Amino acid sequence: MQLQSEGIRVGVVGVGYWGSRHVRVLRSTTGVAKVIGVDQRFTGTAGHPQLTGGDVAGYANLDAALPEVDAVVIATPPSSHYSLGLQAIEAGKHVLIEKPLATSAAEARELVAAAEAAGTLLMPGHTFLFNAAVHKLRDLVRSDELGKLYYLDCARLNLGLYQPDVNVVLDLAPHDVSIANFVLGSLPTVVTAWGSRHVHPQHEDVAHLRLDYSDVGVLANIQVSWLNPHKVRRVTAVGSKKMVVYDDMATDERIRVYDKFAMSPQEGSGPLSRVAYHFGDVMSPFIDFAEPLAVQDQHFVDRVADGCRPAIGGEEGLAVVEVLECAQISLREQRPVALAEVRRLPTRPAPDAALAALPALLDPASAAEPAFATANITRTR
Predict the structure, then answer these.
(1) Residue 89 falls inside a structural domain
(2) Is residue 59 one of the residues assigned to a domain?
(3) Domain with 342 in it: what CATH number?
(4) How far apart are CA 155 and CA 151, in angstroms?
(5) pLDDT digits (tens, 9 = 90+) for 125-179
(6) Which domain holds residue 329?
(7) Distance between CA 381 and CA 379 in Å, rounded?
(8) Containing H/E element for 258?
(9) What is the rounded CA–CA span in Å between residue 176 and residue 346?
(10) Percent of the chain with pLDDT over 70
């Protein structure tokens, strides 16, 4: 593809709640020459100022917009991700698809294969993997600071928004599955899910997932809900030495490290009820925070421009969709589901493989203007 010397032209398909944020971010992203909105509410090519937040050209459908763009961001309902993504890839366009990459593993697999055949970039919208706090959580888990990691507990709750085409698992769980895969540097082997339909007659609005990362000996529990009075975006990692909480709703202290743990009674020391407890300080490491969506979209544009593999690519998006498909089967058949039941590719790089050589955008040690700069400063509470 011949890119314009002054930058690339990016089309945002679906200028709704999240797509309008992409438009806002891309208008100030380095390397973007033009942003085009694609939404059925548009008429002509004048766009819709109330939807795009400014003078952004607009088209009513992707067919009309494809000749005018070099890359596409798809932020439409999940059931349309596969067809729109495949259409853009077959037209030779680079594509970023919001989570989930597709609603089935077969569709996600086909998107990955199509992008590879076309020589185009495919990237999933796993925004939290471009969040400095998630990288700090990963560093704490991978270090010896927490001791032996016992489990991860994830909660993503709110009142709404109900989606018309998918249940709460496909809507909210992609975030926490991608975070767990990234933090643990592994993929689950078995998925168990259970849920309820309280308001919507067809789609679960409350669900729980249990992911067994057997190779690292860790369980990840994920709770998702559209029926909760509080907005919760929290990941807790519990270890034998310390515990850490990542709370995305806490704007000042997204990461808190708790010097707390429980000790098992020594053999022969008395009744098993005599568990000992340690209570220490709560530390909040300083994190120089940058808007994850802006970091993600800049990374997408940079990889389109230089032709390098993105840190988070189609394979990572497929890995998340495979876990989601296991969860859907488990909900339907009320049984644990092995990842091997839905995987068709015998080998795939582990999540860390794509991150072995992180770009400067994600590496504070090498970035001139780091997006993820974490200083060695702590605050004691």
Answers:
(1) no
(2) no
(3) 3.30.360.10
(4) 13
(5) 999 999 999 999 999 999 989 999 999 999 999 998 999 999 999 999 999 999 9
(6) 128-381
(7) 6
(8) strand 255-263
(9) 24
(10) 83
- Whether cis (ω within 30° of 0) applies to the bond prior to 100 is yes
354 inside domain: yes
**Any domain includes 76:** no
pLDDT at 5 over 70: no
d(CA 219, CA 222): 10
Furthest CA-CA distance within the chain: 80
Q: How far apart are the first and last CA of the chain?
A: 54
DSSP state of 191: E
Whether pLDDT at 97 is above 60: yes
Give the chain's count of helices (H) and strands (E): 9, 16
pTM over 0.85? The answer is yes
Q: Rounded to an integer, what distance in angstroms lies between the CA atom of residue 264 and that of residue 276?
A: 7
**Rg of the chain's alpha carbons, rounded to an integer?**
22
How far apart are the C-alpha atoms of 122 and 89, rounded to whole Å? 8
Indicate if the pLDDT at residue 1 is higher than 70. no
Which residue's entry shows tokens 């876990």?
323
**How many domains does the chain divide into?**
1
As a three-state string, the secondary structure of 273-318 is: CCCEEEEEEEEEECCECCCHHHHHHHHHHHHHHHCCCCCCCHHHHH
Cβ–Cβ under 8 Å, residues 380 and 283: yes
pLDDT at residue 264 in the model: 81
The pLDDT value recorded for residue 274 is 78
Q: Is 187 exposed, middle or buried (0-12, 13-18, 19+ CB in 10 A)?
A: buried
